[in-house]
Amino acid sequence: MRTLIILMLLAVLVMAATCYESHESMESHEYLNPFLNRRRANDFIQADSRLRGFTQERIRERSKAPQEYQRERCEDYHPCEMYASRHGYTAAYKHYFGRRRTK
Q1: Rounded to an integer, what is the distance from CA 91 to the centroid of its chain?
Q2: What angle do CA 49, 41, 62 make, to 5 degrees?
Q3: Are the CB atoms for 81 and 75 separated by under 8 Å?
Q4: What's the N-to-C CA distance of the chain in angstroms?
Q5: Where is the Gla domain (predicted)?
Q6: Which residue of 6, 27, 31, 37 is 20 to 30 Å from 56, comparing CA positions?
C-alpha cells in the first residue's frame, strides 16, 4: 500500500513537470490564434520556378484550341488518322466527324 502511494505521488509529480506550460509558450501570438489568414498564408513561401512552368503547362492543357481537340479525336480513330496522313487533319476530321450521317 505504501509503494502504491509513493508511485501515485511520483506519477503526479512527473505529470506536473511535463504538462507545465511555461511563460515563453504564452508569449507567442500563435497561442491565442493559431490559424493564419488565407491571404497571409502564402506570404512567406516563395513558389518554386520549376513548379511555375509545370502550372503554366497545366493551364495550357485545359484551354486547348478547337483544332487540337479535333486532331486528338482524329488520332484516336485509326481510319481518320490514315486519311489525315494523306489529306491533312482538317480534311480528315471533316470527312469522318464533320457531317452527321443519317440512315
Answers
A1: 39
A2: 50
A3: yes
A4: 97
A5: 52-98
A6: 37
